[in-house]
Amino acid sequence: MTDGTTEAQRKVASLVKGQRFAMLTTVDADGTFASRPMAMQEVEFDGDLWFFSEGESRKVSQIHLHPDVNVTVSSNDTWVSLNGRAEVVQDDAQKRRLWNKAVEAWFPDGPDSPRIALIKVHAEAAEYWDTPGGRVATLLSLAKAKATGRPYSGGENEQVEL
C-alpha cells in the first residue's frame, strides 16, 4: 500500500493484522490450484505478506512457474481474500528479521539454513467480509432475515485495490 492509503485499504490491513495462519493458493504446472495452510510472519501489513518455506518445496516450484497467488485469512467473524504476486526471496538478513520461535519449530537449523526460503506475496487486491459482533450477531441477523422474509444483510463486504 502507498502513503495515500484509503480507508478501505486501512480496513483490510486491520482485518489481516494479528492473524497467524492463512491459506496460500498457488497454481500447478497443469493449471490446477493447490492450497495449503501457512503461518504468516508478524509484520505490519503494508500490502506484503511473508512466509517461510522449504526452498525445494512444491509451492516454491509453483511460484516460479506461476507467481499469481491467493492468500485467505479468516477468524470467527472476518474473512479476507488477497490476490497478488509471489516471489521467492533468498535474503538472510530478512530471514533473521522475521525469525521467531514458531518458525524454529519447523526449521530447527536456524534462519541461516540454505534450505529455507522466504515467500513474499505482494497483495494487489483484496475482498473482505466483516461481521462485527461475531457469530451471535450473524445468527441474530439470519434469524431476522428469516422472520421478516428479507435477505440477510449482516455484514460488510468490499473489494479493494491495494
Strand content: 35-45%
Top CATH class: Mainly Beta
Largest sheet: 7 strands, antiparallel
Average predicted local confidence, pLDDT: 87
How many helices?
5
Label the CATH architecture: Roll
CATH superfamily: Electron Transport, Fmn-binding Protein, Chain A
The shape is globular
User: Distance between the terminal alpha carbons, to the nearest Å?
Assistant: 6 Å
How would you describe this structure to a colleague?
- By secondary structure, this protein is of the alpha+beta class.
- The protein has one domain: Electron Transport, Fmn-binding Protein, Chain A (Pnp Oxidase, Chain A).
- Helices cover 28% and strands 38% of the residues.
- Strands 1, 2, 3, 4, 5, 6 and 7 form a seven-stranded antiparallel β-sheet that branches.
- A hairpin with a 5-residue loop joins strand 1 (21-27) and strand 2.
- It is globular, with a radius of gyration of 18 Å.
- The mean pLDDT is 87.
